[in-house]
Each structure stands twice: as C-alpha cells, then as structure tokens.
Design a protein that fits this description.
The chain has 97 residues and is an all-alpha fold. The chain has six helices and no strands. α5 (59-67) runs antiparallel to α6. The longest helix has 13 residues, at 4-16. It is globular and about 30 Å long.
C-alpha cells in the first residue's frame, strides 16, 4: 500500500527531472517577445508578453536555450535573468558547470 506522502514525494522527483519537450529553435521562436530585453547592453525590461512567454516556455526549455549554441543578438546572462525580472520562480540552469 502506498501512502499519500510517498505519492507526493514521487511527484516532486518527477518535477525536478523535467525535460524540454520543444526543440532549441522552437523554444527560441517562443521567446521572440523577449528579444528587446535580451539584446546585449539592453536596459529595456521584459514586456508582459515576454513574461508570459517565459512562463509558457518553462524552466527546462529556457535552460536548453541558455546552455545551447550561441544566438546572435542574445546576451545569455540577460536571458537567464528573465525569470527573476518576470517574478517567475525557476531553478537555476547551472550554466558554466
């Protein structure tokens, strides 16, 4: 017999190992509304459309983007700051480890 707490622990573990269901390029396309906020040296805050795109994309796909091949005109450090700027609670992607 499985207790309720065992089932809950299983769900937490599944959440930690989520993978991105989108390809690199489809994830990148989803973040087009964020382009103005991630160009190098931009001082423009992310728009509401950008923050919605971040929420929809999800942490695993954002990590695929920031850990993937370089994208011309996108500052990875700025892209990694988008969840904080949008008040979206994502875990760190662990870039550079």
């Amino acid at each position: 017999m499985t207790s309720h707490s065992d089932m809950k622990a299983g769900l937490v573990e599944q959440g930690k190992s989520q993978t991105c269901a989108s390809t690199f390029f489809s994830s990148l396309i989803q973040l087009i509304p964020c382009r103005a906020a991630v160009v190098p040296f931009s001082t423009i805050p992310p728009s509401p459309a950008c923050c919605n795109a971040i929420r929809t994309l999800g942490q695993p796909c954002l990590c695929v983007l920031v850990n993937g091949p370089p994208v011309t005109g996108v500052d990875r450090n700025m892209a990694m700051q988008l969840p904080d700027k949008c008040a979206v609670n994502f875990e760190s992607c662990g870039v550079g480890k």
